[in-house]
Amino acid sequence: MVGTPYYLAPEVIEGKHSFECDVYSFAVTLWEMITRHKPTLDLNQEGQPHPYNVFRAIGKGARMPTIIGIPKFLWELVTKCWAQQPVDRLSFAEIVRKLKRVPYKFKNEPLLTR
């Protein structure tokens, strides 16, 4: 398996690859952009967790935490894109439609308060 653990969809661990895997990776990237944090999971370990432990946790449904201040619309977009089951994830066409509405929905509103 090749890739950065936090960005790999749960099904990749089982050797299954599809466009939905890219949607999952996009969700993690979007989370990182919105929160301005590196992906992390609380695995009750000191230091950086071993990639295998990250893969296992993601396979069991663990995701990056919500950060106070993320607009509900964007948090829902992220969570729909990193859904556990590939069929439950949005398509990129749906993502584009939703993102095109963001400037109108949050006009004059920062994504996160500092």
Question: How would you describe what is shown here?
Answer:
The protein is about 45% helix and about 0% strand. With about 110 residues, it is an all-alpha fold. Helix 1 (about 20-35) runs antiparallel to helix 3. One of its GO terms (biological process) is JNK cascade.
Keywords:
114 residues; mainly alpha
Tally the beta strands: 0
Terminal CA distance: 38 Å
Helix content: 40-55%
Biggest sheet record: none
Explain the layout of strands and helices.
Layout: H1 19-35, H2 51-59, H3 72-81, H4 92-100, H5 102-105
Helix pairs in contact: 1-3
Q: What's this model, at a glance?
A:
By secondary structure, the chain is mainly alpha-helical. The protein is built from 5 helices and no strands. Helix content is 43%, strand content 0%.
